[in-house]
Amino acid sequence: MLRLELVNISKQYPAVKANDSVNLKVQPGEIHAVLGENGAGKSTMMKMIYGAVRPDEGEIRWNGQAVNIRNPQEARTLGISMVFQHFSLFDTLTAAENVWLGLDKSLSLAEVTQRMMKVEKEYGLEVDPLRPVHTLSVGERQRVEIVRALMTNPKCLILDEPTSVLTPQAVDKLFVVLRKLAAEGTSILYISHKLDEIRALCTNCTVLRGGKVTGMVDPRTESNAGLSRLMIGAEPPQLQHKQAQLGATVLDVRGLTLPKEDQFGMNLADIRLDVKAGEIVGIAGVSGNGQQELMAALSGEDTRAPADSIRLFGKDISNHSPRRRRKEGLHFVPEERLGRGAVPTLSLAQNTLLTRTEAVRDSGWIATGDVTALAQALIKRFNVKAGGPEAAAKSLSGGNLQKFIVGREIEANPKLLIVSQPTWGVDVGAAAQIRGELLALRDKGCALLVVSEELDELFEICDRMVVIAKGKVSPSVATSAATIEMIGEWMSGLWDRADKSGDAAKETAHA
Amino acid sequence: MLKLESRPEQSRLMSIGSPLLALLITVVVGVILFALLGKDPVRGLYVFFVEPLKSVYALTELAVKATPLLLIALGLALCFRSNVWNIGAEGQYVLGAIFASGVAMNADKSTGGWIVILVLAAAVVGGMLWAAIVALLRDRFNANEILVSLMLVYVADQLLSYLVYGPWKDPAGYNFPQTITFLKSTQMPRLFTGFRVNGGVIIALLAVAAFWVLLFRTYAGFQLQVGGLAPAAARYAGFSSRRALWTALLLSGAMAGLAGGLEIAGPLGQLTPYVPAGYGFAAIIVAYVGRLHPVGIVFSSILMSMFYIGGELAQSRLGLPKALTGVFQGLLLFALLACDTLIYYRIRWKAARAPAAKTPVISTEKKVA
Lengths: 511, 369
Fold this sequence. Notes:
The complex is a heterodimer. Chain A is of the alpha/beta class.
């Protein structure tokens, strides 16, 4: 008998049919992957199983019986638990208090703490229940979420993109836990767009594209190319790599130390980093390790950096405003597209004015014709799917808006481009295009600094890499000399050890 | 079952239609109100919506009342668009009137008509000073500008009372709390003989054009609005939030002060305790009903002016209290806030499905990721 079955489920949103007659069959004790691009309908499908969204048509069967799941409480009563991609934990409470809040109140806090320790021990999910959540690393927070899900003894556990915040080593640990759970009979629905992980972990895979199921396959017998074809209808285009033509040092960060601005931020400690013209330097690391703070200091959004700690072409810029830095050739693409990189309610044309002032006359007058023309040119050159220059930024899909924002900065001919999460939440086709544009900019002699949580991406486009962990930055290593394992270890802040053992990889880029 | 469904994007039609719908609802509630008060609803509506438009004199009176509302609301629209919540325009208006009076009082028989310019300039300075207190406290001590600007209204009222009951009281005024009647040279030239309407209307219409240009054609105006719409984007772009705060407050203070000055140099002609007529608060409604758009505000200020005149007429013709003006203002604002929901959501009738929950479902689902 199937643990969970979806029969011809449809869900219509005002603008888009998120699920169109989809089917899903999950066996007891199976790790079942749900694969698809952003916007393919994975999240909607999971929300319907979890009772957060109600289907328009079709039937959900649980252990062979048709059920009507009206809300997440009912889903939990049935034995369905979900771990969301974005954690829902209170920072100021302890891990145990957070777990306790999510349960019905039949147990006391002390009992919950006891049971947590038992569950943690059983599955090797070490987290101190008494520690406040804000002191936990992202990986630990995810463990709290998983422990919370396991406390209800679920028969089906849904994990939404669980590895996007983990180091490679932590991913391996997570997989051990998931395999153990599956062996005990728990069905696991594993949502991801990372093909390697799915092939390593899952025994069955349902692929979604544009709200429809395009395949049900055994991922262990499929190649990445095969899965990718099912997911996007084509194989991702290959990038052109040329030999780097190194120029002068463009960005020179020396001894940047910056106390955190808000309570849950990260202190930056003695950061040293340099980027030369014609190369891409990547910053790897698990999110929340100081990336945001470093980006704010480099972009000029935070001008508290000590004098002489940030130099552009040898000139101290540490207290220059973002506008001044742009005039000096430093452009920046932030990770939040809506609300930071673009104003959601303003048109694309108006959004060019955030960083591009060619259309502003000396008198302060805006030449609206020039603004529209610039937006139109960006839409054309970067192949942005939009209603036109007057379309509101928020009406674009994530990938198209990202193409527009990255394009806006690339087209300004920067001397140094800093990009945070260039392809975060962007579909495969747009991601390949953005990476290609970044490489083309590098070949033209621009210096690039890229922050990404996706190691694959950094290995694909970077010439050198550094790792950020707990507000410190590692020495740089040439991508050709780096391995995933080594970077993964560094992501836990352990590069000193490699240093002492005389790792030759360090500083090879300067050789 | 009635269902609110989020629209894929906000409706342009409804953003203009919502104020009209709100006006309609206000009228309907007004009819019910008149009926409940035992008055003929048709006559009531006639007093509010036809009489103020019936004659040339009525129209000029409409313009007299609409002018201060329009001026203040323009400044407030800029403030609100910049995410700066100045709700103390009434106080800035009073300070404008006080400063204007301070200059006007010193005119003598030999003073030329040029004094009007000084009177108005003083009014602008007065309004700006009062708003600058708010900006300073917010900038230096992070004090909430909503509370500070509102509290300063009452301080301004006290200051006004002190002056008209004390040092500025007309010695020949039979102890009435008011200043001397200012000389004719300190008054704005009237547009037509026999009507109270004066050059202030032209100043207000020029201000409409100026604010339109500032908001939609200048980089400074763009920066202010980005700060209001998306503060993180403004930081990313490098637009100073401090400059936005000061610009928005000083400009709106200047406009409210100017409105106060024009009242002194026009309809009032002297400083009395009755200078604060609630224009500063009504202008908040005017700004929103006009969609924070300079051209929209022209229409909404005329509408609000009709409510003022209608309230006065209702008192004399129907024997209803003048407070009816406030009732209509409040009704309009409430109806508008409710109708604005329709910009982002649409209403759908849906047959309840058999197993569905008994309570109506208000769907707040956002666009799928």
